[in-house]
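Q: Structure tokens for this one, please.
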Amino acid sequence: MNEDALDRLETHLGSLLFVGVATAASLLLIGLVLWALDATAALATWLLNAGLIVLMATPILRVVVSIVEYARARDWFFVATTLAVLTVLLVSIALALKAG
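A: Here is the predicted structure, written as tokens:
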């Protein structure tokens, strides 16, 4: 992987992580404020759940972005490795949903 591709990957991942964490934090903060004010319990619960889902989805999206960038750079070893990581993540989620 050349330096330009690596810089692009780092830029995309940094942006993704920032947006994901900022979005999750905003949803959680608004949900927490609504819950504390006892305004609308259903909306507060929805916002808190959405914030947690966004927070948990951010690392998974990081893996997906990595796969795309490694494929663009034609670095097939890292494409395969990152696909294996994504497979483990998705299997883990599927098993957790099945158990829950």
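A few notes: The CA atoms of residues 33 and 44 lie 8 Å apart. The longest helix spans residues 3-37.
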